[in-house]
Amino acid sequence: MSISSTAGLEGAAGLVHYSAAKAGIVGFTKVLAQELGPMGITVNAIAPGLIDTPILRRGGVLTERMQKFINMTVNRSPVRRAGVPDDIAAACAYLASAEASFFTGQVMSPNGGMYM
């Protein structure tokens, strides 16, 4: 299982390096799934949307620019909130479970409906 980002699916203006790296993870996941599938190994990626983690808060404080971005994202999201780490943990737990044995080469994107 790999962790990508919605930036790897949609791109993120001003973050070309990050978007390119996360898009590369998506391609890597799909090709690896093709190569390992015949051996019974599944390979998937998770591409989270905005997740409220400490990395958003540099030095424990949200910058004004980051706060505006968070507000804009939350206001456009159908669920009207940022994700939390447990949202991503649940997706990881599912993909690692036996119930996901027919999932391979897929990108699961827990993002509150921001990207559909």
Write up what this structure looks like:
With 116 residues, this protein is mainly α. The protein has a domain of 74 residues: Rossmann fold (3-Layer(aba) Sandwich), CATH 3.40.50. It has a 3-stranded parallel β-sheet, with helices on both faces. The longest helix has 21 residues. The mean pLDDT is 93.
- Compute the number of helices: 4
Query: Which percent range describes the beta-strand content?
Result: 5-15%
Largest sheet: 3 strands, parallel
Overall average pLDDT: 93
**Rg, Cα atoms, Å:** 15 Å
What CATH architecture label of the domain at 2-50 and 84-108 applies? 3-Layer(aba) Sandwich
Q: Characterize the overall form.
A: elongated
Mind telling me the CATH class of the domain at 2-50 and 84-108? Answer: Alpha Beta
Question: Which runs of at least 5 residues are low in confidence (pLDDT < 50)?
Answer: none
Can you say what the CATH homologous superfamily of the domain at 2-50 and 84-108 is? NAD(P)-binding Rossmann-like Domain
Fraction in helix = 40-55%
Give the termini distance in whole angstroms: 21 Å
Sequence of strands across the biggest β-sheet:
1-2-3
Q: Determine the CATH topology of the domain at 2-50 and 84-108.
A: Rossmann fold
Strand pairing plus helix content: what structural class? mainly alpha
The counted number of beta strands is 3
H and E string: EHHEHHE
